Amino acid sequence: MFSEDTAMFTMGTFTSNDQAWVVGSTGYSDGFVRAFENTTVPVLGTVDRGLYQTSRSAPSSLRYIGLGMVNGAYTLEFHFAEIQLDNSTTWLGITRRLFDIYLQGTQRVKDFNIQNEAGGSSRALVRTFRNVEVTNNVLDMHFVWRGKGTCCYGPLVAAIRVTPVFSTAGLEAPGSKSKSSKAVAMGVGIGAAVLFVILFAVFLIVKRQQRRLKALLEDEDLKHLEGKPDLFTYNELKNAARNFSSENKLGQGGFGAVYKGVLPNGTVVAIKELSSKSQQGSREFLNEVTVISSVQHRNLVKLHGCCIDGDHRLLVYEFLENNSLHHVLLSSRRTKPDLLNWPTRFSICLGIARGLSYLHEDSKPKIVHRDIKAHNVLLDRNMTPKIADFGLAKLFQDHETHVSTRVAGTIGYLSPEYAMRGQLTEKADVYSFGVLALEIVSGRSNLDTSLPADMVYLLEWAWNLYERKQEMDMVDKELTDVSQEEAARVIKVALLCSHAVASSRPAMSHVVAMLVGTSPVDVSSLRPGYSALKDAAPGFFSDSGGKDRSRSVDSVDQPSSSSANTSYVFSSQASQAPLSYQEENSIVEAR
Predict the structure, then answer these.
(1) Per the residue annotation, which of 86, 230, 309, 371 is the catalytic one?
(2) Strand intervals (E) in 195-302
(3) Is 427 annotated among the ligand-binding residues?
(4) What is the pLDDT of residues 463-519, one digit of tens each?
(5) 371 catalytically annotated
(6) What is the pTM of this model?
(7) How far is Cα of residue 590 from the mean position of the Cα atoms in its chain?
């Protein structure tokens, strides 16, 4: 007989509908531990693989209590499989899960390690305990983390089987005869045949939620990824955001609103609710969810989970106190300028570079973000930058040198080869980083029509200043503590990154080395004049003197080589800003 444990909590208690058992979980998870763990990787060493595909987990203490048990001796079988940690050399491969097992209040196993006992990850393991005595009609089974192993990973169990050693035929239930019918129903009725069997089969989520995870893996572009985010119901997130009240609203992006929410365990999160009219379909949504949950880096935004509930599509991110880089640096509502002194700006440039280097070179598969901009860099309480919004990310395998795809990104940050020909490589992100680094140094956006004509386009102005050996003139005048050497280095690196020819741009790991000073900044490849960009992509910027800049661009067609007079113009239409909490203007997304 099967009794499902589907209570979605990491801290709390749950009683089964028939009041035959109770489960309790305690401990502070900080987002590392979910109520359940799930895997699509086949579990070896068993014919009943489905039983081990899901497991109940807890931050520190997991306790099952059987109620109304007939007194006597029982055989207990605990079913385990390490489905969260792996055997690789990554973080999940070097971590260790150690916990103790207590039965009826007595420690029976110390420092239990599922991987060691089973001989590896994703292997079934059954640990049997015989002649466990029940004397007060209560069976207490306790799995507890005692501070050993990795702090973030507590007890994990897939199923529990309880079998009486004695025959249950003709047994009188415990208690007085006036209560016998109730006692028999609770203690004996479950196993009226030869054996009395209770099987606590622990599943990650109900079948509906399992189908959603399966859909993630069946997506053509995403089937090779191993992301395992938490899945929330719409009502859970609605309650967390107080019915998505205006008081909890952090901002409005082109694809939906972002709200501040508080999960039941007290974790403060940012909840992005996609608009029902959004053009971002399930493919883009699942792309963002799976990609973010498959990468872990201090300069990448952390995904807590998502919601795929009917027509509702929501993403649940960590809450970052200082909003976006655009809000702090470029917005007309710019506040607390002291937050962006020169050391902080340099640290932000370096952090973004490190995050991109990880995506391009260390992530498996490699990831091209496609929309690096100030809106998509969020800042935590310590002003640490975290790259957000992977909704436009395109994955490519090692053997693919480029991907020709629909253009998606923000004009002004798009590289010439990507905007004009749709050719996508990681060098497109390098170009966008170069533009963003210039914005950080100068404290202005890449397009500002309020400035003199020769300063409207930031990149063109930067190249002109570099030619005249006046590049330091572009440093934000509000800065009073600038390191001349660091600022000059950042500017030169930014110009190298924004080179018109993709092959001349450095890899992001080289960018990091140049920024920290372990590698020299070689500017010999910089062609004199901004004309290099115009030669490589004629018409990439409008030559109309800004007369047409109010037009809206909703798509970018791939032009032929003869389209030298094509003008790309800017609109006041809001672009996608899923985690950049404020509503922004003067940006257009090319789709």
Answers:
(1) 371
(2) 198-202, 230-231, 249-253, 256-262, 268-274
(3) no
(4) 999 989 999 999 999 888 899 999 999 999 999 999 988 989 999 999 999 999 999
(5) yes
(6) 0.55
(7) 24
